[in-house]
Target: TrmE-type G domain-containing protein
Amino acid sequence: RQTISDNDTIAAIVTAMGGQQGAVAIVRLSGNSAVKIVGRLFRTAKTMRNKENSHLNNEWNPKSHRVQYGNLIDASGTLVDEVLVLPMLAPRSYTREDVVELQCHGGDVCVRRVLQLCLEAGARLAQPGEFTLRAFLNGRLDLAQAESVAQLVAAKTSVAAQSALAGIQGGLSAFVQSLRMECIDLLVEMEARLDFDDEMPNLDINALITRIETMCQRLQQALATAGRGRLLQSGLQVAIVGRPNVGKSSLLNAWSQSERAIVTDIPGTTRDIVEARMVVGGIAVNLLDTAGIRDTADLVEKIGVERSEAVAKAADVIVMVISASDGWTPADEIIFQRIWGTDGILRQRKEQTGGVLAGPMAPPSQLATVVDECEDQPGSGSVQTPSLLVVNKVDRAAAGSVILPQEVQNAFFKRVATCATQGVGLQELDFAILDLVGLGHVSSEGQQWAVNQRQAEQLVRAQEALRRVVESVQLDIPLDMWTIDLKEAAIALGEISGDDVSEEVLTNIFNRFCIGK
Ligand code: GDP
Ligand code: ZN
Model:
């Protein structure tokens, strides 16, 4: 496809595109021919003055990590841009290949012209994540670190960025690697026993079981970070529900300090879903204001009702708003029953998911409150979306004057009194949300790496395999059966570090990166 066969050298714009215009933009090249390709385009002031040389001079021998100023010219010798060139020669670069960065004028047109020039000179457009893929393939990063790079770039809050950085620094990688090594050590020992059992001392079964159980516990600790990882990455969806006129839109406005929701006193005005973004305790929170849920013949209103239910269903947290001045009304009761009642949407969801609390793959595990289930399945539990009750308009009547049915009291994690119009109780709401998702006691400095869903799945796989080993040991099952499960655990951990990972998984991971990363 390319005119010149330097197909292994990739190029991409690595700075932001299409957003706010920047003064400087960067095109990055990586690969064996990066220096050769830039040499075809780049002229320092000196070589420009030396005119007869300017088209013949294909020899560019830059010093690594030394910035040079000059011009980029196309094949006909026409000036394309003035640039600063930063060569980072292998292996002292992000990809461990020769990397050249061209700092050109910002603005989408400028930087696209520079990229186009590089492509015409023989580079190939990088795939999403291809720079980081190369860094991984060349051993500069392991897979867990590479994934943290994507998380860092996508981070929406500083706490999320901090956690991704901890991942890049290798905290998770070291943890996974040490467990994987321990699996492999055990495996080697087992296989030695299979081959030379007579020559080895007797196996200390109890010590072995303790050792594997300790590994399971460590896996559990890592798994415990999954919920936080998910929260940091995708933020928290908080649905505000309630009958018309209790102050949902006012609350959304005051809480998020935006004017996105229209506040009116005509019941049922907010028909579309209004969204507001904010940050609470380092967590990105998406507030969703729903149309007033009401039993009504009005068609538009009815669509709004269905939409509200859909939003409530998809939310990580549901905030139900009632009014202190009206108390618990029949309309509140209808909404409550629709969402939390026996036939409510949360029960329906439970049926959809089979009622299984599936550890870290389900909605964040610490978000799920297990409540005792009704008669049909005694003792089993169902997953309820964590919920808060906001008693608004406390300027009109005391929150304590509202009498709630027992069933309602049980459904909510906490009751918070607010006056949306005066901004009262909003901080309590912040704390209640953080408490609800299990982050109330984490200081922002103590933040550390957290596993993502892919990693959590492999941790679970490793843990299950190790538990099978313990079982086999206890049941006195032959040694070669243990090694199968030990291998499985090692492979699962290798999927996290990237030591044992399939092409398909890699493609899947790196395709989610942006181009230029
Ligand atoms: P929504 O239909 O639930 O979204 O309710 P709105 O936010 O549109 O508010 C309905 C009416 O209640 C508006 O007139 C608000 O100004 C008023 N309102 C909202 N919050 C409070 C509050 O805390 N105290 C008082 N006194 N009025 C409020
Ligand atoms: Zn509203």
